[in-house]
Amino acid sequence: MVYTGAAAVGEGYVKQSSIVVLGMLLSSVVNASMLEHTHRAQVAGIDVITYASAVKDVVVISGAIPAGDAMADPDNAAVPTLSGMMLDRGTTSRDKFAIAQMLDNVGASISFNVSTQSLSISAKCLKKDLQLVIALIADDLRNPKLLAAEFSKAKQQLIGSLEASSQSTDARAHENFSRAIFPDNHPNHASSSSEVLAAAKRATLADIRAFQAKFYGPAHMTLIVAGDVSSQEAVKDIEHSFAGWAGGQDYVRADKPAEAAASVERLVPLAAKPSVSVILGQPTGLQYRDPDALALRVGTAIFGRGFTGRLMSTVRDKEGLTYDIGAGVMDDSITDGAWSITASFAPALLDKGMVSTRRELERWWKDGVTEKELVERKQGLIGGYQVALSSTAGIAFAIMSALQRGYDLNWLDQYPDAINALTREQVNHAIHNHLDPHKMTVVKAGSM
Known about the structure:
The protein is of the alpha+beta class.
């Protein structure tokens, strides 16, 4: 299918396309063995995936528990983040200094992060220290000490971060965009910075204990161990450290997909800012694995990804109206997501920049992408996927992404073929069928 229309742009392009297609087919063959290196099992109630790679001695751990901001009680939006922040501050058997010393002694690391839907776990260690690191992760999750003094420090750190982000044009633009396009009961509807700030100030240790008791547990937890690892040893270590743990909740999903009803503009004035952050977009109504979702992502990459995307090459390089502009699809792994253009303009160039951006958006939406653009972008996307899988961390990320998007592990092998199979007609249909420039929300944050 990728040859369609190639002759119209010259013989040289046909030859180049043949090389591109051959390279993609070879890449698919190379990836066909990924599933053979993967082992999956339920261990102590946890979905455990091990991937044995060619790297020597190093192991990467990636985990996720459905305990993100979307699970917050409406009365206290700060609790999920504060709960995650308390996990590296000591357990009932070890204080935080003892844990840090144990990790430093073997050159290992463990970190926790809270996002919209997940509490994410990241760790890295040598093969010989895997048992120790898994035991420490389990101890952090199962037996956090929750000291009052540490909680006070965590609150102050979060409050300081929120106060700083309240003056960030990017942060305020994203906050207002998600609040504008997603209804109040949607998992992707963000709390306002003022709401989270007030919630952080009134949060108590009792709130943290209640949240962790409800959401922390093996049910719906995923743990990926990749690198120089034996699946039998990893399973044994996880079983030993997590046996007897109970609890946990599933991810939060929207009752129905969000819809773009009408064009909306929101202004977020911030004094003395050198640039204005702009977001223009809408809900897609799609999850990642829905029909048309992958085609929309590929079309969007042609339009707004990197220096070869239309937006960067036109609005920045040709017209000099911005130093940063792009487009993407986001927040669609677990529930329906959003499509947006993000840009930064000097206040004096804001109006011209918006005219240029909307002109390119309208042209892309009406005319779609060309066959040449599609063939070249396929090559880049598949090549980038291959490069990402060259690292152990990249493999762990790819596995986690596939599982959260609702795929089986064989998606790791199928992704290049799925990209390669897309036609220009499918991509242009997805663009025109799921987006409408005349119903998009625009948010401008900064000094206007």
